[in-house]
Write a structure and sequence with these properties.
Elements lengths: L1 H27 L8 E8 L10 E4 L2 E12 L4 E9 L9 E6 L6 E6 L12 E2 L1 E3 L4 H12 L4
Parallel strand pairs: 1-7, 2-6, 5-8
Antiparallel strand pairs: 1-4, 2-3, 3-4, 5-6
Length: 150
């Protein structure tokens, strides 16, 4: 009987560890429905490296996620919807920039707050946007430009 008791105890510990890991993974990736927030919109020329679930950050702190990305067939721009945590007001003259975590890191959406005393409300659109900068195109311009020193 002691052999079966040991197997049950070890199996229970493994199951508890798996449940704890699943809960942690859900919270770390933002899949848990515990957070509430409001949605804002923006339109980008280039949204390279950003997809649904990408972090939205303010001062380096995650305050939301990208919830929808769609191509506007009339303007050929990437219309984006993202959520912002409740309790974090965003000034109405803020800018939204696609930033990179580094040379090998991924991209994220960064809100650059403005100085306006008025704030955006749910469903508003941020007009001032800057899309992703392609490192490959910058390198090509640098290499092509280095031989033109006359």
């Amino acid at each position: 009987m002691s052999h079966n008791t040991t197997e049950i105890a070890v199996g229970g510990a493994v199951l508890a560890g798996a449940i704890a890991f699943a809960l942690y993974a859900g919270q770390a990736t933002g899949l848990s429905g515990s957070g509430t927030g409001y949605e804002l919109n923006a339109s980008f020329r280039s949204l390279e490296g950003v997809s649904v679930g990408t972090d939205v950050r303010l001062a380096g702190v995650k305050i939301g996620t990208v919830t929808n990305v769609d191509l506007n067939p009339e303007t050929y721009r990437a219309d984006t919807t993202f959520s912002v945590r409740d309790g974090i007001p965003v000034p109405d003259d803020s800018a939204v920039v696609v930033s990179s975590e580094g040379l090998l890191g991924g991209n994220f959406v960064e809100i650059m707050p403005g100085g306006s005393p008025f704030y955006l409300e749910a469903g508003d659109t941020i007009e001032d946007t800057q899309g992703a900068v392609s490192l490959i195109s910058l390198l090509v311009k640098f290499v092509a430009g280095s031989g033109d020193s006359e």
